[in-house]
From TrEMBL:
Species per Swiss-Prot/TrEMBL record: Dictyobacter aurantiacus
Protein origin, superkingdom: Bacteria
Protein name: DUF998 domain-containing protein
Alphabetical keyword list: Membrane, Transmembrane, Transmembrane helix
Transmembrane segments: 19-39, 59-80, 92-112, 132-152, 164-184, 196-214
InterPro entries the record matches: DUF998 (IPR009339)
Length: 224
């Protein structure tokens, strides 16, 4: 039975733990790709996508990072559904963020093909696993941006949450923009700073998920 504090909007302990998984998972991914990108020999984080860290020596670390983050984000999506309970976005917000978590597991299981000469000496011929990796990668950006827009609409109903409405809209737009610019730069220019472009979307989107989780963990933290 819920206590009076929980009835007032404070999440259950189990729900708080699930919400905490959102902050842990999204921030873990950011930290790991930044550290690995900085220390991996022959890897240029400005030019090479983060998923290329799955290949080469120590690639298992990035594969594990993706899968662990995905599991944590799936748990977060379940906690989000419990925290939102009713109202606009209470169904689609968790579903979209669940797909976001699932996409991490997908890109971890299906390893990317070599791109832009990394790792050195490996064939860049397309494979089924690489194609599936790319599809899960697109699902990642699309599902996250859509979740931002869905939850922005939910917050828009509450005048006290206008700041979050603007923040969610801005995040969704930046995530979509980074994805489009990434694809166009890779396809049209055959290179360029796509590692940096991808990381902008990852850091912006991951920070939004972490802050959303922290927000919901507070007493009366459920949105609108």
């Amino acid at each position: 039975m819920e206590t009076s504090a929980q009835n007032a909007g404070e999440p259950l302990v189990a729900t708080k733990l699930q919400l905490a998984c959102g902050a842990i998972g999204s921030l873990l991914n950011i930290v790991v790709i930044l550290i690995l990108g900085a220390i991996r020999p022959g890897y240029n984080a400005w030019l090479i996508p983060d998923s290329s860290l799955e290949r080469g020596e120590g690639g298992w670390i990035q594969i594990t990072n993706y899968i662990v983050c995905g599991v944590l984000l799936l748990s977060f999506a379940i906690g989000l559904r419990r925290a939102l309970r009713t109202g606009h976005g209470s169904t689609w917000g968790p579903i979209l963020l669940g797909l976001f978590g699932l996409s991490f597991i997908g890109i971890g299981i299906f390893v990317t093909d070599p791109v832009l000469g990394y790792p050195l000496g490996e064939s860049s011929a397309p494979t089924v696993a690489g194609t599936l990796h790319n599809l899960f990668g697109q699902l990642q950006f699309i599902s996250l941006a859509a979740a931002c827009f869905v939850l922005a609409r939910r917050d828009a109903a509450d005048p006290a949450s206008r700041g979050w409405t603007r923040y969610s809209l801005a995040t969704g737009l930046l995530v979509i923009t980074s994805d489009v610019v990434f694809v166009l730069t890779f396809k049209l220019l055959g290179g360029g700073p796509i590692g940096l472009i991808a990381r902008i979307g990852i850091i912006v989107g991951g920070s939004w998920v972490a802050l959303l989780a922290i927000r919901l963990m507070r007493p009366k933290g459920s949105i609108a």
